[in-house]
Amino acid sequence: MSVARVSEISATSGKSFDDAVAQGIARAAKTLRNIKSAWVKDMNVKVENGKIAHYRVNMMVTFVLDD
User: Fold this and answer.
1) How far apart are CA 47 and CA 54, in angstroms?
2) Domain boundaries of the chain, sorted by first residue
3) 26-42 pLDDT, tens per residue?
4) Which superfamily is assigned to 4-64 in CATH?
5) pLDDT band at 67, cuts 50/70/90?
C-alpha cells in the first residue's frame, strides 16, 4: 500500500503558463521525491502597461511518501 501527500505550490514565468508549470514541477522535484501528478488549480497573469508581464499558476502536486 502506498500513501500520497498533496502540496500546493505557486510558480511564475515570463514566457507562458506551460513554462510556469514546468518550472514549478522542476523546482518541486528538487525537494520532493516520487512526484506523480499535478493539478493546475488556478492561472492568472500580471499586467503592466497593458501587456502581460508574468504568468502565474497555483498547483496541487501529488507525491508518494517513502515506505
Assistant:
1) 7
2) 4-64
3) 999 999 999 999 999 99
4) Flavin-binding protein dodecin (3.30.1660.10)
5) confident
